[in-house]
Amino acid sequence: MRLKEPVAVGGLRLDNRLVLPPMATKKSTPEGLVTEDLKEYYRQRAEGGCLGLVITEHSFVTQQGKASPQQMSMADDRAVPGLRELTDLLHENGCRVFAQISHAGGMAQPECTGMEAVAASAVQNPGAPVQGIIPRPLTVPEIQDVVERFVEAACRVKAAGFDGVEVHSAHAYLLNEFYSPLTNRRTDEYGGSLENRLRIHREIIRGIRERLGEDYPIAVRLGGCDYMAGGNTPEDAAAACRILEAEGVALLDISGGMCRYIRKDCTDAGYFADTSAAVKRSVKTPVLLTGGITAAAQAEELLQRGAADLIGVGRALLQNAAWAREAMNI
Predict the structure, then answer these.
(1) How confident is the model at residue 49 (pLDDT cuts 50, 70, 90)?
(2) Are strands 12-14 and 7-9 parallel, antiparallel or unpaired?
(3) 157 exposed, middle or buried (CB, 10 Å; 0-12, 13-18, 19+)?
(4) pLDDT bucket at 132, cuts 50 / 70 / 90
């Protein structure tokens, strides 16, 4: 059973290929701090060492990038002590754990953040739940500030004991808005070509490397394909991941772009597999696939046919905390 085989992610050895992907629980305090309920949620799912990797829910790097009430925070040092308690309990259960850091960009709601929405361009985000909000485009100095906020958040991730950090560029959030031609209409060095649309990603990765060292694992969750006319394609995702691989990314986590985390035209298990397989054929870096996988046999089949190197199971684990133990026969 390949699902039970170990795999290397950067310098880390994972005991198996099953991943709990980031899913918002809304169990943090209003300020985004860790609660006992949040710790218990993760403890139940990690119990028994049946997960190779846990990637915690997206954490905002700045108030302007907060996606929803009670979202977990990585925006200031107050978050670190509670996060250290969380990583300790996950490590006690035999799990490796990454933290996902995020900026909601044009998806952020002013009533949640108390601030105006900002994005790559003044374009309606097709993934936004509330249509009609046109975000203000970031200036270049503001982009540099966003880069620094991601780097500072990554420093808190390491200080809290996480084994690695995942940069969120999927599900129509800010970095995805830069990557997608549907939402990036810039004419400066952050727009136009694929290399330019990934410039902010490369600057964040390099900033984290400079601050945390060459060996600290960095993952990127990429909304590889938009599944919309005029948007990114699986071929674009493969080209983007070659650029990210050249920056030394340790894990490529493939999900949806402007379509967010679902595909209206496909409900098969692993419904982003066409994109993850195109990426896997193009890189040597391990590839993670999540989306609609509810049975161990489905995960195994996706691994066997080369759609990915690791499999994320989200909703099934959300509904049944014991799913991983049952699937792995632990």
Answers:
(1) confident
(2) antiparallel
(3) buried
(4) confident
Q: How does the average pLDDT of the chain come out, rounded? A: 96
The residues annotated as belonging to the active site are 173
pTM to 2 decimals?
0.97
Minimal CA–CA distance to 39: which of 80, 89, 101, 95? 89
3-state secondary structure the chain: CHHHCCEEECCEEECCCEEECCCCCCCCCCCCCCCHHHHHHHHHHHCCCCCCEEEEEEEECCHHHCCCCCCEECCCHHHHHHHHHHHHHHHHCCCEEEEEEECCHHHCCHHHHCCCCEECCCCCCCCCCCCCCCCEECCHHHHHHHHHHHHHHHHHHHHCCCCEEEEEECCCCHHHHHHCCCCCCCCCCCCCCHHHHCHHHHHHHHHHHHHHCCCCCEEEEEEEECCCCCCCCHHHHHHHHHHHHHCCCCEEEEEECCCCCCCCCCCCCCCCHHHHHHHHHHCCCCEEEECCCCCHHHHHHHHHCCCCCEEECCHHHHHCCCHHHHHHCC
CA R_g for the chain: 18
Cβ count near 11 (within 10 Å): 12
The tokens for 2 are 């390949």
89 CB burial (10 A radius; 0-12, 13-18, 19+): middle
- Output the pLDDT for position 1: 59
Residue 330: pLDDT above 80? no
